[in-house]
């Protein structure tokens, strides 16, 4: 009797498997942000996807962002999900080179993404093929204390000379012009990128981060010369090498510094710190060379399909879904960032509105120094920027060291 | 049948003849059986990885496998070691490691001093003792954080002290000349407590007879300490030196928390530089990182050999 019971059970299980096998298929999604805002926005998108594709069994894994950076190196080979988040530019390049990210050019082709996602297409492309789709980015720029500017009778500087003049005025009033925290290096890279983009342009940025230009090149020296002018104008707060970006922010909130070259995520901390929208504002990094079109920094977060994905058809459905205009509109509204799809609309936050206008008008979208340059070069470069800000007279030694690193990294 | 073992007598003697090999050698085997789990784990997680590190250090490898699981590592021989000789960051790390080793040794005499001071019979001394234990109990990460704030020129205690005397406070953790000393000072705080605990234990075992005998011979103060007490504290001193050397060479947590090797690499040490090149976000050069690990291991090997030799000699002497 027990054996009869067993057979029935096994039969029923086998039946169940065939039934689910014939109707449903799987999709395993790995996402990398546990912060409440992005997590909720992602989960809402998954629900929407499930609603549209009732026949797909969706399994979701959400990792901590830092843990994800380590884990992805193993799971792409060992136990790949069907889709995973990552970053554009050179950050995805090692995985493309190792053949771990699959070519999804057909998804771009079929959905007309070359037009709607045009702004980030170059940073998703390796050798003419696309290896993922972008779903969100945010602008960088100069955030400033409007109340301090008003008190000193300053307006948003448009040119380099106006910018330097504003710095001197602010410095004379006893407030530091710019705050920054370089303990974790990357904020300095934002400053370098903007100086370099305005001085030498978007193509030069790409040549430099691709290792085609030496750091001792006179054009790079020009960029550092502008930086030196900022230092000479009393540009930065003291002791920035001991502070992370939030500690730098506290000086901004306390009114001890008037400006901050930062990404749009900084607005959240400013509001949390008690500043009202009347006290803070944003301007585009000023023009240095009027012959050069304005390119902007906008780090892009992306979705990719690993080569070892088991449900490739469903994965492509997901990629097409996340880049769709309505999905990107909702997703970014709830996350407080900018959609990449040019047909999407933006939340009514004034910074997002201004950022969207800026990015849509940009001559190029840079991914940020540490995502455009290979990791090892980025680390050495950012240490160099930090060193330059503290000891500007060591410029020659710094640039020569960077050349040495460059030679090894790109060989 | 089941009652048989409980019955003493000739039946028992008969059975011994049939005992298995295992049973006959159980006295010899027992320690190895108890050691086996530790030995197996020690082999898997310590000994074998050492050889794997040495092996990987001859390869250029970014830690990734191809999609089919095959390796992407390429053989470069001793190239990484040649590169190390020409690497400013590595040289800074090596120099800082030496600095750590030398200055960290201060923990031993300071720990002894505090232990001698606390080894008195006064009311409430237990409370003082436990207060001195405290830094050892606090996690290294917390110590690092506390000292980062402590050193902060804008709102730290150091800043206030400087300003009290009308001076501009130094940004210790942003100054390439001061930063390593600042971190070592922070690391010394719990290390001194550790050495103190070792010495307090040692002082408990100092024989009162010998002190008595020393007194009768007219020894007191420094002479008493040097000729009577310190020799008896030798085991504690040996242990204190061992843990301090190891602590100095594997200094990692403090640097990771306080500066991440900065400003611009000037507070780096080998263990953190190895982590940075091999495992951090900006690294993933497994081969190069392994080469650094091998160098660090070679340095440790010098001390390990010395300690093992010393222990062997002491045991033979006894």
From TrEMBL, chain A:
InterPro entries: Bact_solute-bd_prot1, SBP. This is ABC-type sugar transport system, periplasmic component. Belongs to the bacterial solute-binding protein 1 family. Residues 1-24 form the signal peptide. It comes from the Bacteria. Keywords: Periplasm, Signal, Sugar transport, Transport. One of its GO terms (cellular component) is periplasmic space. It is found in: Periplasm. The keyword Signal applies. Pfam families: SBP_bac_1. The keyword Repeat does not apply. It comes from Hoeflea phototrophica (strain DSM 17068 / NCIMB 14078 / DFL-43).
UniProtKB/TrEMBL annotation, chain B:
The keyword Cell membrane applies. GO terms for cellular component: plasma membrane. The keyword Membrane applies. One of its GO terms (biological process) is transmembrane transport. Residues 93-307 form the ABC transmembrane type-1 domain. It is found in: Cell membrane. It is a multi-pass membrane protein. This is ABC-type sugar transport system, permease component. It comes from Hoeflea phototrophica (strain DSM 17068 / NCIMB 14078 / DFL-43).
């Amino acid at each position: 009797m027990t054996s009869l019971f067993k057979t029935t059970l096994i039969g029923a299980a086998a039946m169940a498997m065939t039934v689910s096998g014939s109707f449903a298929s799987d999709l395993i999604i790995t996402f990398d942000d546990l912060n409440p805002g992005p997590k909720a926005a992602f989960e809402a998108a998954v629900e929407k996807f499930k609603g549209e594709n009732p026949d797909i069994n969706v399994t979701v894994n959400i990792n901590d962002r830092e843990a994800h950076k380590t884990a992805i190196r193993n799971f792409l080979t060992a136990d790949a999900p069907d889709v995973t988040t990552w970053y554009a530019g050179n950050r995805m390049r090692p995985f493309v080179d190792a053949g771990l990210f699959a070519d999804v050019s057909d998804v771009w082709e079929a959905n007309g993404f070359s037009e709607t996602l045009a702004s980030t297409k170059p940073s998703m492309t390796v050798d003419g093929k696309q290896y993922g789709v972008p779903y969100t980015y945010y602008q960088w720029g100069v955030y400033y204390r409007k109340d301090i500017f008003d008190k000193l009778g300053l307006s948003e500087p448009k040119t380099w000379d106006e910018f330097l003049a504003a710095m001197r005025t602010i410095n004379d009033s006893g407030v530091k012009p710019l705050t920054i925290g370089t303990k974790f290096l990357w904020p300095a890279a934002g400053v370098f990128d903007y100086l370099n983009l305005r001085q030498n342009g978007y193509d030069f940025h790409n040549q430099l981060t691709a290792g085609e230009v030496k750091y001792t090149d006179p054009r790079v020296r020009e960029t550092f010369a502008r930086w030196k002018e900022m230092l000479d104008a009393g540009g930065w707060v003291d002791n920035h090498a001991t502070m992370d970006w939030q500690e730098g922010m506290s000086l901004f909130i306390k009114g001890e510094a008037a400006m901050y070259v930062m990404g749009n995520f900084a607005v959240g901390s400013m509001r949390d710190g008690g500043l009202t929208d009347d006290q803070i504002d944003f301007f585009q990094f000023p023009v240095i060379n009027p012959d050069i079109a304005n390119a902007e920094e906008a780090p892009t977060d992306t979705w990719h399909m690993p080569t070892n994905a088991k449900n490739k058809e469903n994965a492509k459905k997901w990629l097409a879904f996340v880049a769709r205009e309505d999905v990107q509109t909702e997703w970014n509204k709830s996350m407080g960032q900018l959609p990449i799809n040019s047909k999407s609309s933006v939340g009514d936050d004034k910074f997002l509105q201004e950022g969207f206008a800026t990015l849509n008008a940009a001559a190029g979208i840079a991914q940020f120094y540490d995502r455009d340059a290979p990791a090892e070069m980025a680390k050495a470069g950012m240490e160099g920027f930090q060193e330059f800000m503290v000891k500007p007279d060591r410029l020659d030694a710094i640039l020569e060291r960077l050349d040495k690193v460059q030679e090894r990294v790109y060989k | 049948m089941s009652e048989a073992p409980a019955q003493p007598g000739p039946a028992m003697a008969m059975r011994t003849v049939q005992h298995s090999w295992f049973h006959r050698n159980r006295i010899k085997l027992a320690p190895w059986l108890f050691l086996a789990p530790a030995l197996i784990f020690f082999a898997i997680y310590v000994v074998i990885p050492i050889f794997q590190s040495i092996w990987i250090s001859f390869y250029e490898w970014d830690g990734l496998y191809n999609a089919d699981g095959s390796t992407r590592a390429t053989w470069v021989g001793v190239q990484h070691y040649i590169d190390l000789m020409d690497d400013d960051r590595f040289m800074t790390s090596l120099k800082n490691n030496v600095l750590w080793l030398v200055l960290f040794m201060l923990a031993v005499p300071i720990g002894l001093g505090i232990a001698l001071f606390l080894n008195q019979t006064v009311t409430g001394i237990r409370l003082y003792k436990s207060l001195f234990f405290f830094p050892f109990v606090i996690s290294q990460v917390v110590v690092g954080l506390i000292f980062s704030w402590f050193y902060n020129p804008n709102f730290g205690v150091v800043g206030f002290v400087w300003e009290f005397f009308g001076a501009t406070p130094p940004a210790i953790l942003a100054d390439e000349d001061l930063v390593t000393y600042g971190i070592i000072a922070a690391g010394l705080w719990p290390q001194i407590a550790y050495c103190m605990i070792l010495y307090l234990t040692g002082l408990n075992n100092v024989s009162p007879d010998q002190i008595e005998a020393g007194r009768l011979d007219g020894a007191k103060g420094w002479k008493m300490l040097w000729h009577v007490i310190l020799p008896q504290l030798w085991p504690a001193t040996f242990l204190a030196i061992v843990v301090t050397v190891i602590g100095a060479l594997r200094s990692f947590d403090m640097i990771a928390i306080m500066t991440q090797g900065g400003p611009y690499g000037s507070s780096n040490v080998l263990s953190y530089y190895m982590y940075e090149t091999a495992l951090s976000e900006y690294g993933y050069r497994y081969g190069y990182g392994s080469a650094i690990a091998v160098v660090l291991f070679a340095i440790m090997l010098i001390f390990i050999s010395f300690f093992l030799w010393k222990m062997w000699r002491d045991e033979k002497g006894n």
